[in-house]
Amino acid sequence: MVVSKKVMQHMRSDLKIAFIYLGRRGGGAVYALEVARALHKKAKCLVIISQQVWNLKVWRDSGLPLLEIPTYQNPLSFVFSTLNIANHLTLRNKLSNFDPDVLYYPMLDLWTPLVNWLMPKVPKVLTLHDPVQHYGERNLILAIVQWLAIRQSSRVILLSRSFIEKGKRLGISSDCIDVIPLGEFSYYTRFGKVDPKGPKSTILFFGRILPYKGLNILLDAFPLIKERIPEARLLIIGSGNLKPYKERLQNLHDVIVVNRWIADDEVASFFQQADILVAPYIDASQSGVIPIAYAFKVPVIATRVGGLSEQVEDGKTGLLVNAGDVAALAEACVCLLSNPSWATSLGEAGYQKAIREWNWDRIAELVYESCAKAVFARHKSRP
Question: Structural domains in the chain?
Answer without folding.
Answer: 5-183+359-381 (3.40.50.2000), 187-357 (3.40.50.2000)
